[in-house]
């Protein structure tokens, strides 16, 4: 077997993707585990090594769906709670590095081939201008990628910011969430996979006064793909427009000159998304429409972009 330089893992609230990295900085043998089957990153790593029959290498680099500035980690969208120091101790003598998962998505952006990107709408790419990464999965993650001699990724918690009240429907949706007893209402409550989509289903069901035979997100995606389900078309049409509004606001705040949407949700209905109101919602502005019109937006179709970011980070660390 080729010598293993490192193990890498992109650990989200729903799935953990693990691979090993060779001497040429290529990754291999991606395994996808359900995060709910484990309690901490070291359990995922040990399960992967056990399956492949390999020893832990000296270097393990992990991207997790949580901030990594503090020792105590709490995954908002699953049951995981652990200390980074405890995980490092359990994985000793390996050296373990932690990064935010969307930070690693951002680190991948300059290295993704065009074949991994689907452009939505117009705009022209400026290669070294700031890039905005948005990950849409169980939650919503964001990072800004800027170039100064090298690429630098700045992670943030955009999914926990407040939702802009851009139209009356969003206001009504917000009011429904407030009436349900929520004290804090954030972007994830509108477009996150774990909370946002189910809550949008509840709202649209009430708004349209419909009783849908199967209102689960997966069933509605199936109905959307074959376009036989009018409720699904309306629901996800609204969902795509809200993503456009959120992406616009993040873009205006950060000064990004290109936007990249990643994660497991949009690729499930990519054709619909490309033709949806996402782009018109992104460009909608009475004052800065010409600016937004010039900014390209892309969907990342590579299923493992954060693994690419982790590999690039390892290469950069070892080159210093």
From TrEMBL:
<dbReference type="GO" id="GO:0005524">
    <property type="term" value="F:ATP binding"/>
</dbReference>
<dbReference type="Pfam" id="PF02685">
    <property type="entry name" value="Glucokinase"/>
</dbReference>
<dbReference type="GO" id="GO:0006096">
    <property type="term" value="P:glycolytic process"/>
</dbReference>
<dbReference type="GO" id="GO:0004340">
    <property type="term" value="F:glucokinase activity"/>
</dbReference>
<dbReference type="InterPro" id="IPR050201">
    <property type="entry name" value="Bacterial_glucokinase"/>
</dbReference>
<comment type="similarity">
    <text>Belongs to the bacterial glucokinase family.</text>
</comment>
<dbReference type="GO" id="GO:0005829">
    <property type="term" value="C:cytosol"/>
</dbReference>
<keyword id="KW-0808">Transferase</keyword>
<dbReference type="GO" id="GO:0005536">
    <property type="term" value="F:D-glucose binding"/>
</dbReference>
<protein>
    <submittedName>
        <fullName>Glucokinase</fullName>
    </submittedName>
</protein>
<dbReference type="InterPro" id="IPR003836">
    <property type="entry name" value="Glucokinase"/>
</dbReference>
<keyword id="KW-0418">Kinase</keyword>
<dbReference type="InterPro" id="IPR043129">
    <property type="entry name" value="ATPase_NBD"/>
</dbReference>
